[in-house]
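Before relying on records like the one below, remember that each one covers exactly one chain. Contacts with other chains, cofactors or solvent are not represented anywhere in the record.
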Amino acid sequence: MEANSVFCSSNSSKPHFIFGFNHSSSSQFLTPLPTKLLIDSKSLSSPRTSLRTSALTVEKPLEKPSGPRESLPKIDKSGRFCSPRSARELALLIAYAACLEGSDPVRLFERRMNARREPGYEFDKDSLLKYNHMSFGGPPVATETVEEADELLRHIEKESAIEAEVLSAPPKLVYGKLILRFTRKLLVAVVDKWDTHVLVIDKVAPPNWKLEPAGRILELCILHLAMSEIAVLGTRHQIVINEAVDLAKRFCDGAAPRIINGCLRTFLKDLHGTSTTQASEEKQEVVS
């Protein structure tokens, strides 16, 4: 990943960067600005360790979110995460961090795996049971009173603290062996196909993403992960696209889930078209 000139904008609640979109390689990234916590009598927003922001407005009755979807058991017999979702989430975390510091995702993953624990460090495994992989963002939540807003803010802060503890813990304490192997496979696939997929993303991504790609690091990392899993690991595209959309719902803002869904479906059509053309050419060579 070669470095380009990087500039940072400070007027955003979401990490925002501006740099040239390089076709031959990816760009080096800068550490994101911290999200500010704003509290006043009318509105308040809370930073999320998952890089999302939740806002509350004291105007309308509280809108209750829909119930969580059923998911596979997330804890194995050793008390660690065992679902493929957790592997994709960890891979996204590593890929994002690697982009920010301009390092190799696989090497960064291995550094995290081999990092020494601080003296006296203890990880509360009960936090794994409280961690919610299916906690999605959404529009601002309206509340009727300041008390309701304060209660909801406390809930968000508690959820954020759990996420911070889990995502910053040594991976070997959080994820099962099979999940860590799958995570590494994903990252190896991303590195292997990075330059190729940069060109693909340049074709399928919307113009505003290409104009300011540093403001869309998470979204672009999700695309890289999904495209690499389909192209290299051969996971069924229906599964990969659904997982990518869920990651976008969880970690990104606005229309990102819908855009990522469209980008991946366009990528899939082009991939199938290329495969068909290659097969046809090979068949003609054999016949001739």
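Strands lie at 7-8, 17-18, 38-39, 43-47, 53-58, 141-143.
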